[in-house]
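Run log // design_07
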């Protein structure tokens, strides 16, 4: 385990939407730098809700949530924005900006942190080539297939080499060959120090690669960590 403090720490975290029954129940979790986790569970188990908490898209109802050592209930909106710059997110519905080209969508995080236009374009083209979209730089999202949009979203999420990468069903719209390649990309990020959390219902990958498994069942979290680990392509 890392000697540094956890990247993510949840202590008895609960989440309710309005007056409904809790979606997440007494979640206790610590995730460290250079760790890789699959987040599993049936549809409706709370996987997307947990990811939304981790990138501060929603607020928890009770308990304590720390991100990069900061209690998010005690910091300003401006500080939260700075923390978000250290997080890469792959959304299940892609969240691409339809008026921007593929290249512009992918370079957006670099623009936010002040990278030069030349450096932004160089890095974006490199990663788009790697995910097989080297011929789509100037395309708009509405002409892309679901699998292509997924790869654009992934390229955008990893381009800043974030400290925390959260991916919601990132292989759901691509074939097995591309899915294996994307898993290799996530694994490479993990080896460079990123804490990676991949929410998936794709049991084949969980069983094949045998990295830590966090399973949600009716809002409760169970750590099914396994020793060893498969060899990623």
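design_07 sequence
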């Amino acid at each position: 385990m890392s000697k540094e403090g956890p990247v993510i720490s949840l202590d008895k975290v609960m989440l309710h939407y309005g007056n409904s029954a809790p979606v997440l129940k007494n979640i206790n979790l610590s995730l460290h730098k250079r760790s890789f986790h699959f987040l599993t569970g049936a549809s409706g188990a709370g996987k997307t809700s947990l990811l939304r908490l981790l990138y501060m898209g929603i607020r928890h109802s009770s308990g304590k949530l720390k991100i990069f050592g900061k209690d998010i209930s005690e910091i300003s909106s401006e500080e939260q924005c700075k923390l978000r710059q250290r997080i890469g997110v792959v959304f299940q519905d892609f969240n691409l900006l339809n008026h921007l080209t593929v290249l512009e969508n992918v370079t957006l995080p670099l623009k936010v942190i002040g990278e030069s236009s030349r450096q932004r374009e160089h890095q974006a083209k490199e990663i788009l080539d790697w995910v097989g979209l080297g011929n789509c730089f100037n395309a708009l999202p509405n002409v892309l297939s679901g699998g292509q949009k997924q790869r654009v979203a992934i390229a955008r999420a990893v381009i800043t080499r974030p400290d925390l990468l959260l991916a919601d069903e990132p292989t759901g719209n691509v074939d097995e060959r591309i899915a294996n390649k994307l898993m290799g990309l996530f694994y490479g990020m993990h080896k460079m120090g990123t804490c990676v959390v991949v929410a998936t219902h794709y049991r084949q990958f969980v069983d094949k690669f045998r990295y830590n498994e966090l399973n949600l069942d009716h809002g409760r979290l169970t750590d099914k960590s396994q020793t060893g680990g498969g060899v990623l392509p």
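The CA atoms of residues 184 and 232 lie 6 Å apart.
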